Amino acid sequence: MRVVESRSTFPLEGALQALAHGEHLCSIYENQLDDSELLIPFLRIGLERGEKCVCIAQEGREGHLEQALTTAGIDVAAALASKALVLMSPGRVYLKGDSFDPYRMFTFWKDLSSRAREEGFSRLRGACNMHWILRGAPGTQPWLAYERHLSDLAADSQCLLLCQYDRSSFGAQHLLEVIRTHPRVIHRGTVADNIYYRPSELDSQADAPEFESLLNDLRKREHANYVLREQRAEDERRSERATQSQLVRVSRLTTLGELTAAIAHEVNQPLTAIIAHAGAARRWLSGDFPNVVSAAAAIDGITADARRASQVIARIRALARKADNHRDMLDLNEMLAETLVLVDAELRANSVTLRTAFEPALPRIFGDRVQLQQVALNLIVNAVEAIAALAQGSRELVIRTFLNERQEVQVAVQDSGVGLPEGNLQMIFEPFYTTKLHGMGIGLSISRTIILAHNGRLWAQQNTDAPGITVHFTLPSREDVATETGPGGAPP
Amino acid sequence: MTTPPPQRVALVDDDANLCVAFVELLSSAGLDCETYPSAEEFLRQASRETIRCLVLDLGLPGMSGLELLRHLRTNGWSIPIVCFTAQPDPDGKLAQQVLEAGAHAVLYKPFDPEELLRLLQPDGDDDTGGPDIGRRAGTTRRKHGS
Questions:
Q1: At CB < 8 Å, which residues of chain B contact A?
Q2: Which pLDDT does position A295 carry in this prediction?
Q3: pTM, whole model, 2 decimals?
Q4: ipTM surpassing 0.85, yes or no?
Q5: What is the DSSP track for A414-466?
């Protein structure tokens, strides 16, 4: 029993667009219509891309092909004249001299592929109807061996080769072999990765009718994969929309943690090698007869591994740049309110009173919500920790937003905490500086990097008439100044 | 005068650059070395006749270092095994696990190369001071911690 599937479940056009040169695939078509629905777009895409398209049609169907191409909007006469499209008959290609010679065919494809480039075409694209095999001309026995090697040839010559097989004319055993010799299979409008492909000439002992279930299986897998891919893409789109959710913030913080672990591991490897090389060099140079040659080799090792370590850093930098594209128009009041929800438990656990004074008419800013939220979170947590260290006195956290005299949006996080010794106000922004027992000393440094990247400023002040400090940051208030022009100025 | 031991130190680490550095270090100390990129490769090729002791990375792809360690111990390999890892192990749980599985020592990357060499030097066959790796009679015993 055949299951009728809707063809619309699989985007054939997109899959054909995605085919790459160096691929060898087969189409097993049900009927002439099925064949044209694949062949025409396959050729059209090639012509659109400036490739040389060679089509070896089934004998007697050349006229139909030209007509179908014309119907699809292709100027066949022009394409033929410019040799972008070449229509050939199987009798003159595969069965030249009335017999099939696979080696002649390999040469044929290789020559054609290099000639296509000489003629100024980008690549060679071939569509070959394999119906001629059924004529039983001499030499057709090695046809499957030919198909097996064609994958290598396509890869070597960087051409795209499609072999079309008529399902109703070929026997089951043959089709099974066809499936096994093509890395990708197109069946009923689905381009499927072929898990049954066997690159080597392994003997096939399977039952003949199996090919039918193989085809169904391949198509179903591809459909399932397609649905999965679509779902994943949709999930990504959805999560993109939901950047305000805590989940995303947490996941990106987790990624930072994971990234740190990965960096530590990746840098540790070359460091270990460097230390081992250095140990060796030291040994080669010690003793009564220093081995300078071996020591020099060890020192070369140090250089090479140090270079590896710096490459790790370069890779991380590149990664960070890639992740740096999440900017949007933001309402800072709203962002701060969300952040405060996250620290609510922290505030209560430390008996901190929160006071907010948000400017209701605050202009929006252009920035990365998650990064700015990390900055806010960092400043608030620092403030709470400074207050938590107090044995007595006022335990108050004040967060204000306002438009300053420079027309920038400014946020002030003021605590009544233990404060800092005079002179340390600048140092708190240095990487790895910390006054906390278990602090890493990177929070404020990262925060400042983030704010600078937003063309803003970040600084700290002792409170004038009260204990504790206030940390301020500013951000440009309009989108026209939000373009990246480098770090902003120094604090006033 | 110490003669180089006739048996080799085997090293299993998937990082080829690190292997090169270790081979260099070991040979600078007069130790012969053979390296394997994975636990599986070690099991396939290593011979008990040539290997005096084993230096094993715990973070291997495929079969892990700890798994190889356990496998060797249950299959009658009694050679000394020194493990190292790049994984943080703040409470020493990993080290404990590895030592319980039969390793002689655990080192954390990056580690002092002299420490590794000390562990790998063929020692005397009494068991005072330092891990008793080697057990070759007739070699000069190095003094530790004095």
A1: 15, 17-18, 20-22, 24-25, 27-29, 59, 86-88, 109-114, 116-117
A2: 92
A3: 0.39
A4: no
A5: EE-S----TT-TTGGGSTT---SSS--S-HHHHHHHHHHHTT-EEEEEE-SSS
